[in-house]
Amino acid sequence: MNGFIFDLDGVIVDTAKYHYLAWKNLADELGVPFTEEDNEHFKGVSRKRCLEILLEMGNISLPQSEFDRLLVEKNEDYLSYIEQMDESEILPDVPKVLNYLRERNIPMALGSASKNARAILKKVNLTEYFQTIVDGTQVTAAKPDPQVFLIAAERLGTDPDACVVFEDALAGIEAANRANMLSIGIGEPETLTDARHVFRDFTEISTAFIESLLDH
Ligand code: G6P
Ligand code: MG
């Protein structure tokens, strides 16, 4: 394996909780019941598609202008949560893995559905680790479509089947598998059943395991 692709939200930083809070606020406003389990299906899914799903859940149809207004409202709410983010919000042992790979000159990419990905990476000071950043502003087909990861592989100059993807979302694991990449789930094994390997977080990933991927 000689290309490592990382999702952002829920893999590198715990922004999933802020996305949840912002969607929950909007769901309450719309009178749609929304649980953390519902939020699992929002992970890795584009902002627009998330709102469509939320409205479907509440059997609500809205004019386009109102739909667009709610998208802005959700994002402004989300941005208010992430405004204060700094390095302390990097998930445990992520820097250990990034440094390990960087020391070995392994090309790394970010592959995120978020349009806020660059801003977040900057806040937590990790931008420089990635040769390329593919985010929600650059794709036409959202996860589970493999496009975001295929673009990342192409920019890294690595064949898709020599890429590893770290993902916390069901949609992201599906996208990685469809791209013919090695999918590594970060989260609950009961949830991420389609991932090739699953770890609860990076503290469970040993350097021996990373090394075995490099030799793969
Ligand atoms: C990530 C998150 C999703 C979020 C999406 C779009 O993939 O896991 O929950 O909906 O990005 O994020 P954005 O910051 O563009 O609203
Ligand atoms: Mg994610």
UniProtKB/TrEMBL annotation:
Name of this chain's protein: Beta-phosphoglucomutase
Regions annotated as coiled coil: none
Residues binding substrate, per UniProt: 7-9, 23, 74, 112-116, 143
Pfam families: Hydrolase (PF00702)
Keywords for the protein's UniProt record, in alphabetical order: Carbohydrate metabolism, Isomerase, Magnesium, Metal-binding, Phosphoprotein
Top EC group: isomerase
Record site feature (Important for catalytic activity and assists the phosphoryl transfer reaction to Asp8 by balancing charge and orienting the reacting groups), residues: 112, 143
Any GO molecular function: magnesium ion binding
Family: Belongs to the HAD-like hydrolase superfamily. CbbY/CbbZ/Gph/YieH family.
Active site: 7 (nucleophile), 9 (proton donor/acceptor)
Cofactor: how bound: Binds 2 magnesium ions per subunit.
Cofactor: Mg(2+)
Gene Ontology biological process terms, A to Z: carbohydrate metabolic process
EC number: 5.4.2.6
Superkingdom of origin organism: Bacteria
Catalytic activity: beta-D-glucose 1-phosphate = beta-D-glucose 6-phosphate
